[in-house]
Fold each of these.
Amino acid sequence: MDYLSGLFLGALQGLLEWLPVSSSGQSMLVLLGLFGLSAQAAFTYGIFFHLGTLFAVLLKYRIDWLKILDNPPLTRFLAVTTAFTAASGLFAYYLLKRSMSTFSGEALNGFVGLLLVVTGLILYHMRRRDFGTKDVSALSLSESAVVGLTQGFSVLPGISRSGATVAALALSDVRQDEALRLSFLMSVPAVAGAVAVEIAPRMRA
């Protein structure tokens, strides 16, 4: 892939990541259809694209991260969501990795398209629901666990991570601005973990 293509894809990721439209699903469709990459390569690129998002979130929420140890409820929330994200995310990741070689390009496009429809239904349901008034300190362990499990399944290209996690937080009656903040904060360990899982086999080779 040349530098111009990389710049285009980086700009696409930067634009779409802040919208609940599944940047991984959109980038995979572009990589498959426009660049002709294999399913495995497109999936891997999609994971690494999120590194840029990780650094952007760290910069935007740098005060939260610098003072995280002074905020026990946030620390607990991130610890619980990260653990449960790992549980569902690793399951979905390895299931998809093992079955991806059996997908044709058309079938994979259809699969991503179906998951984008699921994302659309999540967003439609969220629009019809009012946010609550809770902040992170009012979230129970079980509510945090559900949010973490939801985030894990967003490793599937087409499921919007931000859309799914904000919807899960809305179901727990979290206020809107807090739901958005928590959704992006919890993305940092999730992205770092996904990149580590993708890199690990290459380091052993």
Amino acid sequence: MDPAPQIRPSWWQCLWGLPFLLVGGGLFVYTLFQGITHSTDSLTQLVVPGHAELNLKGKQTYTVFLEEQSVVNGKVYSTTQSIQGLSCTVTAKQDGSSVGIGKPSENTSYEVNGRSGHSVLDFFIPQDGQYLFACDYGANATGPSVVVAVGSGVGESIMRTLLVSMASLLGSFVACVAVVLIVWAMRERSKKRIRHTAPTQA
């Protein structure tokens, strides 16, 4: 008696989708970790009250972040006191013109590498150049020393990191599902072929 024909491929072939999941999961973790940990690399920290000359690119919006927890030159800063009255200005070094500064268009926050901060101000730079960024409590006011960080593209960097990492994870899942579907389709064709070639009983 001839042995019963086997359906090919075996369901075990679905395991070929496992490497896609492992690679996608690894890319997800790596991309997320690298992107988040380096999202604040472009920020310039400044202890205020104080000022700094910044070389800024034109046609860009810069954001000022207040860092609740921060480390500057080995010194730890923790903002727990009121900073009411703290104001910041941006002035072009070339002609002394003031740059408008106001509330941020979107709320962005971060917590990475021992630093945590949230957006408090935005300003638009019209052209490349040197700019004086300064913050203080006013001529007749005092307040605690705090750390602010100035930079552009932090929110976009965080969002891009999330999108790329999620795309990696989703892509690996889709690839794994595709392997399972291919195996299923090939097994269905194998079943039909076996039924069509099976001898007809008298």
